[in-house]
Amino acid sequence: MNWLVVVVGGMIGAPLRYLTDRTVQSRHDSVFPWGTFVVNVTGCLLLGALTGCADVAPHLRLFLGTGLCGALTTYSTFSYETLRLTETGAGLYAAANAVASVVAGLAAATAGVALGQWVSP
Fold first, then answer.
1. SS3 helix, strand, coil % of the chain, rounded to 5?
2. Which residue from 5, 56, 78, 100 has the fewest beta carbons nearer than 10 Å?
3. Shortest CA distance to 31 belongs to which of 82, 70, 98?
4. Strand, helix or coil at 121?
5. Phi-psi bin for 29: left (phi > 0), alpha (psi -120 to 50), beta?
6. How far is CA 35 from CA 63, 104, 121, in A?
7. Exposed/middle/buried for residue 110 (C-beta within 10 Å: 0-12, 13-18, 19+)
8. Phi/psi-derived region of residue 65, left when phi > 0, alpha when psi is between -120 and 50, beta in every other case
9. What is the DSSP secondary-structure string of 77-104?
């Protein structure tokens, strides 16, 4: 039954990623992939908070962590967009995307863990 919980989380996370990405990107007139950046950092924050909470039920961890966050975040799109930036001559944007994604993702995960520990009894 665990697989079903993951599937349901993924069914929510995937369209949420697509819609968030399109909404964020449409508000920016830049080649920088803001939509992917936002969903990845948000996913890091959510997964960090989930990790920081001590008393989360296993099914909820599967639903939110593996399912929702797994479908919400996207390493493959991040890699592809960074490669495309490089190929189109936007190497500075590619480097900024790589560095900012890693730094912001780690910062968001760290903040999420702290938030989860603060909220968790």
1. 85, 0, 15
2. 100
3. 82
4. coil
5. beta
6. 23, 14, 34
7. middle
8. alpha
9. HHHHHHHHHHHTT-HHHHHHHHHHHHHH
Residue 59: CB atoms within 10 Å = 14
Q: How far apart are CA 17 and CA 111, in angstroms?
A: 21
Q: What is the pLDDT of residues 21-55, one digit of tens each?
A: 999 999 999 999 999 999 999 999 999 999 999 88
Are the C-beta atoms of residues 30 and 86 closer than 8 Å to each other?
Answer: no
Q: What is the mean pLDDT of the chain?
A: 96
Best CA proximity match to 99, nearest among 120, 116, 113, 85: 85
Residue 59 pLDDT class (50, 70, 90 cuts): very high
Two tokens, residue 121:
């009894």
Tokens of 5: 């919980």
Residue identified by tokens 């996370």 is: 13
